[in-house]
Amino acid sequence: MTAVASEIEQKAQAAKRAARRLATTSTTVKNAALTGLATALATHESEILAANARDIERGRGDGLTPAVLDRLTLTAERLAAIASDVRGVAALPDPVGESIEMRTLPNGMIVGKMRVPFGVIGAIYENRPNVTVDIASLCLKAGSATILRGGKEALQSNIVLGRVIDAALAEAGVPEGAVQIIESSDRAIVAEMLTMKEYIDLVVPRGGEELIRFVEKNATMPVLIGGIGVCHTYVDADADLTKARDIVVNAKTRRYSICNALDTIVVHADVAARFLPDVARAMAEKGVELRCDDRAYAILDGTYGSVRAGAEDFGKEFLALVASVALVDSYDDGVDFIYRYSSGHSDAIVTENYSTAMRFLREVDTAVCYVNASTQFTDGAQFGMGAEIIDATQKFHARGPVGLREICTYKWIVFGDGQIRA
Questions:
Q1: Single pTM value for the model
Q2: Domain 231-377, what fold?
């Protein structure tokens, strides 16, 4: 066994031992740990931000893109928001042990389901140190142990965050080993983790397409996929165009480096001549380049920095101040366009027509469908879930923001009174 395999196996074994005890740890203890962690993040703010500054300095030297640097960056405000999310998780009902779908059979037996922890959840992720805290917090509350392997870009941040998490959990009496932080950027660790089905019950990759596909191909345990966002907003013929402009600008520019940021504006031809100049002006003020199909370009004609789109500009997650624009002749054409290019993450319609809005919700096959709102809201905290472990795009047991209930599984429970089967 190599040194890498030995290290990860020891951590996996420790997590497995902790998971059994964590599954029956009281809500009081778990909430105390989370509250203590939120406080500790503030107490250790300067230490965390100093470690993050070292990661940022190294990242700039390595030539990381502005989008990656933005995801990597922690500030006092962002750290306070992370702590607030931890408190939000503590305030949520504990899903472990909840009985659901109970019913009485004709023979008098009561049958239903009970939510139970997965066991050990492994997370492999890049760039975003907030993920370390989000996943640790959610899994703790849901009664699962975690093995967290962040990317080299956030190595120093994650090491410090991991130690803060360990201390807060230990002080509250959480079973030792409940959160395992891999303090190494050795890529061989990822491959080793993916072979450890006997210890790890579910693995969650968060990062670029290359990482996600590698995990999906090589994992020996179930994988929860998400994170790649090619997000559309369709401006319907019956849209309030002022509302549409504000939604589109927010969806692109609030934070362009996240997976729920707008990539393509799809515009009904009937309103394009009125809508496009207005939205292009607003986007240009935010530094956004619009890459337009032929009909959209004919309207803008290079104004506000607009350029002609290439075929590669549709179905692309930009993660930059760039958006593509396409014109369609009907609602059906708009939905067809989204079906062709969407990654199934977050897509929106802007319309004042109720029937059209309801058709969009029924017909667009994406994890989160919006009517008259920005796709930037695809986030566990924004949905009242405290935080999220991932934005899932696959058709697994969960889609969209995955929170406490979604990272539990269930077992069937049966109450009898002496029934025997004939």
A1: 0.85
A2: Aldehyde Dehydrogenase; Chain A, domain 2 (3.40.309)
